[in-house]
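Late entry, written up from scratch paper. The run itself happened at the end of the previous shift, but nothing got recorded in the book at the time, so transcribing now.
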Amino acid sequence: MARVFGADHRVLILAVARMGEAAASGFILIALPLYIASEVVSGFSFGLDTALISGIIISGGLLLTIVPQPIAGYLSDTFGRRKPFAVVSLAVRSVTAFLFTLATVYPLVLLFQFITSVASAVFTPAAMALITEYSDPETRAVNFGAYTSLRLVGAVAGPLAAGGLIADGPYEVAVLGSVTGFEAAFYIAALGILVSLVLTQLFVYDPPETTATAREDISVNIFADEPDRTFDPVFVLALATVLFGGTTYLITAIQPEINTRLNQTAATFSLQFVAPIAILALLGPVFGKLADRYGRRPFLVVSGLFVVPGVLLQGFATSSMMLLAGSVVIGIGMALAFAPAVALVGDLSDGTGAGTQLSLLTMSLYLGQAIGPLVAGFFVTFWFPLPFLIVSVQIPSLNSRGVLPPPRCEPLFDVLAKPLNQAFKCLRWRCFRFRFSWSDTVSVFLGDRLIDDISFSF
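Output as recorded:
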């Protein structure tokens, strides 16, 4: 497997553990709304419909994963330990997955979901900091690409398997007797996380150099120290990740409107939703390996040139295939951006405060995934393409504020610059322009002011 991905074997073990955990999370994600809507769970609902209760529990859990991540990252940096955070997280999640089978009232379901969310938030920064410390700059992006790819395989396989498992229940199990489809899903989720826990405990360890750097400066800056940049690069990448995360979940809240507009089935929509995740899983390691060879920043710039038209294609889609094509293009843009972005944050941390720095990025991804459906659900009532236009405009707008880091170069290469300038001028900024040179660099200007430089390390 290490040869296939070109990644460190220690990273692949951690990735396999994360894949099992992600698959288990997918089981819970599918089972929980059906479990809440069933007759098994009851109690005082404050007059709320079960669908709304499910939305509150699931969305609340997703939002709750955001806040603890930088705290967990900071603590792992402070103590100079990663593995204990990952092990405790998996242990708590395995227990709560089992406890869902004992929850018969709404408050207990809500409590277990919130505990699960906090535990999940603890695991993520510890795992990503470990990958940073296992990697050198020449292999960091491909390692993050392999980790992300396997995680997404679990995230896709889990929900697909859970649906059939729940529908085919109940089951007769030798030791347990009759087991409902819901119970089977929760049991398998608990078992999957337990296997991930064993793998982590046996094969994952903290590098010896972590402790030596844990108590150094691990702050996260908003504004840059350099006079020619407005924002700190890590903060800038976090803002971009919010937008990119929002694009992947933009269509989830407006599924009924999309299905009615395109006269398609829920199964077709599922394919459209999964497409970007599948593309990211497939191409993430490929672009990660290329980013290790040619540098991180060119991929971050090019990714926006895929994501923007992909979002617009979704917003103005007149057929199911057109919307699917937009999803695929978004997936390519995400694959171009994710592994290089995480690797760049790892490079900038330079082994110091990696947990804190990387937690900001993962927190931003979850935040974007939570905000995207809210933006779509609100603005689609005015005009269907409006939420897609808003998101697509913000990506180049963010770039124009110096978010995507760009080189001091001599002008020219107008043949390449003109279409880019025209595209971004139409979207928002008339004074936003590109300048290329023969020295493998590109400069981004706002008016006559140099915003930043991007070095192409060929």
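Residues 320-349 form the longest helix (30 residues).
(Scratch paper discarded after transcription.)
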